[in-house]
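Blinded run. Sample ID left blank on purpose so nobody reads anything into the name before looking at the predicted structure. Input follows.
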Amino acid sequence: MGCGWRWRHRRGGPGRPPKDRVIGFSIKRVTFVPVDERGVPLPGEPIYLMPDELEALRLVYLEGLTQGEAAERMGVSRGTLWRVLDSGRRKIAQALVEGRPIVIVPPAPG
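Blinded prediction complete.
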């Protein structure tokens, strides 16, 4: 199951092909939009939360797994899980601080 575009270049050529990441849930596209005190949506460019970022956040913060356990469930290294988790946390923090919408991107089919 793919989770979006990941491409790496090393020494002028394509890097190692990315491994598929295991996503343990299915979700349709969801958007969280901040509103003001009158209920009017606040303007702003949306921040896109990728499926692997949401899965890492779910496993570590909702299910209470360690990073090692979560990495094993997702089929990635602990370092990769840490980077994905950090990216998801930063995106959520940025959306909250700047009042921007959060769009959860569904996993790519296949």
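Unblinding after everyone has recorded impressions. The helical segments are 51-62, 67-74, 78-98.
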